[in-house]
Amino acid sequence: MIPEALEKIADNVLSLDESDLAMLLDHYKDRMAQGEPTRAWERAVIAYFLLNGIRIKNTLKQDKLRRRGPTAEKTPHLCLVKA
After folding, report:
1. Is the pTM of this model over 0.85?
2. Rounded CA gap, 62 and 59, in Å?
3. CA 67, 71, 72 angle in degrees (round to 5)?
4. Looking at residue 45, what is its pLDDT?
């Protein structure tokens, strides 16, 4: 049950665009900064780091795609198996 719930949350968060992500990050950052350690504060901390994880994932993905270059996707990787 928990893995399915986490995957559903991940699907919902992955559907956010960059502007929604930035807005929500600011919202939860403000809630974390002004709150006392209550249940609502704990939820804000978890939500913030979940959203920040998506932002980091997007950055890593873009870096990886840039390193590949445009020709890497079109050119198959060939290696000599036997000479």
Report:
1. no
2. 5
3. 55
4. 93
φ, ψ for residue 80, nearest 5 deg: -75, 120
Cα–Cα distance measured from residue 50 to residue 83, given in angstroms and rounded to the nearest whole number:
50
Q: Which alpha helices (DSSP H) does 1-83 contain, by range?
A: 2-14, 18-34, 39-74
pLDDT in tens, the chain (83 residues): 889 999 998 898 888 888 888 999 999 999 999 878 899 999 999 999 999 988 898 889 889 888 887 655 566 777 878 86
How far does Cα 42 stand from its chain's mean position?
20
Q: Which two tokens stand for residue 68?
A: 């590949």
Q: Tell me if residue 54 falls in helix, strand or coil.
A: helix
Token pair recorded at residue 47: 């939500």
Report CA-CA distances (Å) from 26 to 21, 32, 35, 56: 9, 10, 14, 15
